[in-house]
Write a structure and sequence with these properties.
The protein is of the alpha+beta class. It has seven helices and eight strands; from the N terminus they run αββββαβααβαββαα. A hairpin with a 6-residue loop joins strand 1 and strand 2. The longest helix has 23 residues.
Length: about 210
């Protein structure tokens, strides 16, 4: 598996999907065998990044490969991997509707089936902290908890995680769609109808054990 290629392709994927603009956001992938983390470089155009630009470090943040400066959110990515050992991919996005809710500090509930199946838990908003700070990393971990696959960073964007890069991107997409639907419900002056905890558990089981090709 060429992890550097995965990082390069994922940067273009994030940009083309509308989940960020310009050089905002960042991506990482943890190699389960070596426990090394591959990160996007800081402030580079995703369409111009090549494999040699990818930075590799250990879980303590020591750079083991790469000449570029890594994303300033390196500490946040590493904190996620330490706190959630089942996670191998982290995608930090700047999507419009999710960020709207991050700016008002409002959590995004599981209002549609896809959210209940994918997001793991209510998407909480982490308390504000400066980009690249240890405080932001700590707040992110607290908001993610042990179950959720996404959280919002107040006035900043979203962090989405997964066992694979595809899984993390699916979380990113479902989160933004859910945020847009939630925004529209609120714009209508309405309240969403809550999905029962029993049905949420049933859908989680369905996705993990029944849905798709086995």
């Amino acid at each position: 598996m060429n992890i550097k290629r995965i990082i390069v392709d994922s940067g273009i994927r994030m940009l083309n999907s509308g989940l960020t603009v310009g050089t905002w956001g960042n991506i990482s992938f943890r190699d389960k065998e070596s426990n090394l983390v591959y990160l996007t470089p800081s402030g580079m155009d995703y369409s111009a990044i090549i494999e040699d630009d990818v930075v590799v470090c250990d879980l303590d943040g020591n750079i083991v490969e790469g000449k570029r400066k890594p994303t300033i959110e390196k500490g946040m990515h590493l904190a996620v991997y330490k706190a959630r050992p089942e996670v191998n991919a982290v995608v930090h996005t700047h999507p419009i509707y999710s960020t709207v809710f991050s700016c008002i500090g409002e959590d995004i509930p599981l209002i549609i089936d896809e959210a209940a199946q994918t997001l793991g838990d209510v998407v909480k908003t982490a308390s504000y902290a400066l980009p690249g700070s240890q405080e932001l990393a700590d707040n992110c971990i607290k908001a993610l908890g042990t179950k959720s696959n996404a959280c919002l960073l107040m006035s900043h964007g979203a962090v989405c995680v997964g066992e694979t890069m595809d899984a993390a991107f699916k979380v990113s997409t479902v989160l933004e769609v859910t945020a847009q639907i939630y925004y529209m419900i609120k714009s209508m002056g309405k309240e969403y109808i809550k999905i029962s905890e029993e049905n949420i558990v049933a859908m989680e089981y369905f996705v993990k054990n029944i849905y798709g090709q086995r």
